[in-house]
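ok so i was messing around last nite and threw this chain in just to see what happens. nothing serious, just curious
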Amino acid sequence: MTLVFASNNSHKLEEVRQIMPAGVEVLSLKDIGFAAEIEETGTTLLENSRLKAQTVWEWLKIKAEGEWRGAKVDGVFADDTGLEIDALDGKPGVYTARWYRQGAYDDVQGTKDMNEQEIFTANRAKALRELVGKTNRDAQFKTVITLIRQDETLQIEGVVRGRIAEQERGEGGFGYDPVFIPEGYNETFAELPAEIKNNISHRARALAKLVEQL
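result:
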């Protein structure tokens, strides 16, 4: 089975490929030659996930005639992930990936020139800053996946509860991993081995449900 993951995020792609079972080939947008920027205009994770999957699915049917290197593509799936912090009324939520833009701070000036790692750093800094003085640091990560194949559209979600650490810890992972401690653990996602994270993370849980439908 060949599926397109509607993303070029190398970290996500690696995680997804590690989780997917043998026999399922996962292609990135770069692999299929999709170079357009998909504007995430949805107001919910569900809407953005569907928007990305639908955009790539329609492009694939028209531009690539549903094939990649002569092989049929069986479907397209996309995810959208949000960090929801209890003490902040569920923020940043749908704005998780670009939370650093929400408000003006000296440490994120010139954001147009920021690379991926700098954006990750700015987002984490904001999470820690917003929780200064708050005793409730509970939070959750939610991933919504949309799978489109033929005439079927499937949407599923995975959630992992946890809390925001007092400071960044660990060198692994990406995004908010150095500040998120999953429920049942004392280590952040960035401190945990990849094999553990890939079994308990929000994306892993959503992908496990996806695999059941393949």
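not much to say yet. The domain at 2-213 is CATH 3.90.950.10 (Maf protein).
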